[in-house]
Amino acid sequence: MDFNTKFTPHTWPDHPEQATMEGKNKVVGFWIFLACEVVLFASLFATYLALKNKGPAGMEFTTQSLFELPLAFAMTMLLLTSSLTSVYAIYHMRNFNFKAMQTWLGITVLLGLGFLGLEIYEFQHYVGLGFTFNQSAFSTSFYSLVGTHGFHVTLGLVWITTLMLRNAKRGLNLYNAPKYFVAALYWHFIDVVWVFIFTVVYLMGVIG
User: Fold this and answer.
1) DSSP 6
2) Contact 158, 57 (CB under 8 A)
3) C-alpha to C-alpha distance for 127 and 133, rounded to whole angstroms
C-alpha cells in the first residue's frame, strides 16, 4: 500500500502498523530495542537485590521503615490505567478513528503525568528524611532503578505528546500509524517494568 492512499474506515487495513514494509521493519526493530531494554532493567534489578538494605553499620533506613505501600499502589493504579487507555487508543487507530485515538492518548499522557508527580513527591520525601542518592549502597541502587524507570516514563510522555502535536492536522496514514503503535508498545513495556518494581521493591520490601 502507498503512504498517500486516501482511506476510509472501510478500506483502512486491520493492522495498519504492518501494512507496509517500512511499518513491519519499525515494529521488528522496536522489539529488538525492547530486548536491549530488558537487559538494562534486569541489571538494575539484580544490583538492587544485591544491595537492598546494605549500608553503613546501624543504617537508619530499611525497606520496612521507608517504603509506603499506599503511595506505591496509587502510582501503580495510575500507570496500569494509562496502559489501558493506550490500548483504547490503538483500538481506535485500527478503526481509523483519529479523534478518538488522540483523545485516549491525551488521557494516557495525563495519567502518566500523575504518576510522575507522585514519584517526584516520593523522592522529595525520602531526600527530606536523609535518604539521598549517595547515603548508602541501598539508596544508590534504589534511585538508579526507580529513577531510570521514571526517566523512561518521561521519554514516553514526550514521545506520545510529540506524535499527537505533530500529526494533529495530518490525521492517520500508513506512515504515522506504525509510530503510534510502537509508542504504545513502549508505554506497555514501561508499565510492565513498573509492575516488577512495585512487586520486588515495594511489596516485597514492606512485607519482608
Assistant:
1) -
2) no
3) 8
Cβ(119)–Cβ(75) under 8 Å? Answer: yes
Cα separation, 13 vs 94, in Å, equals 7
Question: Between 137-166 and 21-51, two packed helices, what is the crossing angle to 10 degrees?
Answer: 160
User: 9 is written with which cell numbers?
Assistant: 474506515
Nearest residue to 31 (alpha-carbon basis) of 143, 181, 174:
181
Cα–Cα dist 175/152, whole Å: 25
Residue 63, number of CB atoms within 10 A of its CB: 17
Question: pTM higher than 0.90, yes or no?
Answer: yes
Eight-class DSSP state of 167: T
Amino acid identity at 115: F
Convert the pLDDT of each residue in 145-185 to its tens digit.
999 999 999 999 999 999 999 999 988 998 899 999 999 99
Which residue type sits at 49?
L
Q: How confident is the model at residue 23 (pLDDT cuts 50, 70, 90)?
A: confident
* Start-to-end CA span in the chain (Å): 56
